[in-house]
Prior knowledge:
Helix content: 40-55%
Number of helices: 8
Number of domains: 1
Distance between the termini: 18 Å
CATH class: Alpha Beta
Radius of gyration: 16 Å
Oligomer: single chain
Order of helices and strands: EHEEHEEHEHEHHEHH
Number of strands: 8
Structural class: alpha/beta
CATH topology: Rossmann fold
Strand content: 15-25%
Largest sheet: 4 strands, parallel
Amino acid sequence: xxxxxxxxxxxxxxxxxxxxxxxxxxxxxxxxxxxxxxxxxxxxxxxxxxxxxxxxxxxxxxxxxxxxxxxxxxxxxxxxxxxxxxxxxxxxxxxxxxxxxxxxxxxxxxxxxxxxxxxxxxxxxxxxxxxxxxxxxxxxxxxxxxxxxxxxxxxxxxxxxxxxxxxxxxxxxxxxxxxxxxxxxxxxxxxx
Length: 192
């Protein structure tokens, strides 16, 4: 049976990492190694490696990435070898990726059966509040991300994919996850 590749896309703070972790816990999805040039955050898992911009660009030039993009002054990429090892192993796992719209398009081009799910805030105001409450980013970074938010949401909305609207209310988190599960596990013919 072929491994599923699920790509979660959406703005910072919408819950991509939290929902990816739930797929890992509940269904044993694997998260491949991601490389970034941004600073480490307290809530980052072990799947991130932090490198300088010059090393990242060397990796781009050597073809190390399945996908990569620059967002909010930092580079992000998924190591192709990491994904290959997960899906080609003796006991392959399904894979979940946290990507930008550009990254999703690159993955979809290379892996047409990848499931793309856009996580969108039901109200962008709570998203800005969440970024501030994280205390993991400088005021300057939050201002940059806030300024980019509307154009980023337009970019996410332009993707041809299933969309799930997330709320900051803890009461809705299970409903949001159930919507993600339905998309991930619906038959291929329906998903398209």
